[in-house]
TrEMBL record:
Name by which UniProt lists this protein: Imidazoleglycerol-phosphate dehydratase
SUPFAM superfamilies named in the record: Ribosomal protein S5 domain 2-like
Superkingdom of the organism of origin: Bacteria
Pathway membership, UniProt: Amino-acid biosynthesis; L-histidine biosynthesis; L-histidine from 5-phospho-alpha-D-ribose 1-diphosphate: step 6/9
Gene: hisB
Protein location: Cytoplasm
Keyword Cytoplasm attached: yes
Length: 199
């Protein structure tokens, strides 16, 4: 089996980000974005997707966390797409329901190469710690778009904002784990009746 590992670097006037992603890892995370809550979410993503993830991000946090959050999503998505390669043999579809105390979130993913995001999660607080809750959608949109994933994330119910956010990341991680998994019955073929995946 070819190693499904990618490392991507992206530098702009606003951020400087490097991501290394191993789709067949064991859930190890080494994450430093300068945003504590985002680090916490990405560590959970690695753990529950069983991907090994390294993130190094420097951004214009003296302004706010927007550029760093969005650009980390972009680079993680680019790394995921590169690691997937031609996508031969992958399961392609993934889904998960994640409960966290009073909260339940569902994520469904299709690694179709045709990106789309449905985001149904509402927060009653503007911030969790120092993290702006409106930025969660920005990360998921950036990740889905650059990974080539059709991703639906729906918080079905919940009241604790921390639980809602964390369950969104964990559900997406579990859906991603299922979607990128290799099915030996595919025998290295493309999981599409079209014979290809992409736009």
């Amino acid at each position: 089996m070819t190693n499904r590992i990618a490392e991507r670097h992206r530098k702009t006037k606003e951020t400087d980000i490097t991501v290394r992603l191993d789709l067949d890892g064991s859930g190890k995370a080494d994450v430093s974005t300068g945003i504590g809550f985002l680090d916490h979410m990405l560590e959970g993503f690695a753990k529950h997707s069983l991907c090994d993830l390294t993130v190094r991000a420097e951004g214009d946090l003296h302004i706010d966390g927007h550029h760093t959050t969005e650009d980390v999503g972009i680079v993680m998505g680019l790394a995921a797409a590169e690691a997937l390669g031609d996508m031969k043999g992958i399961t392609r579809f993934g889904h998960a329901y994640i409960p966290m105390d009073e909260t339940l979130t569902r994520a469904s993913m299709d690694l179709s190469g045709r990106p789309y995001l449905i985001w149904k999660a509402e927060f009653t607080r503007d911030k969790i710690g120092e993290f702006d809750t409106e930025l969660f959608k920005e990360w998921f949109h950036a990740f889905a778009t650059n990974a080539g994933a059709c991703l639906h994330v729906e918080n079905l119910y919940g009241t604790n904002n921390h639980h809602i956010a964390e369950s969104c990341f964990k559900a997406t991680a579990r859906a991603f784990k299922m979607a990128v998994s290799l099915d030996p019955r595919m025998a290295g073929s493309i999981p599409s009746t079209k014979g290809s995946l992409g736009s």
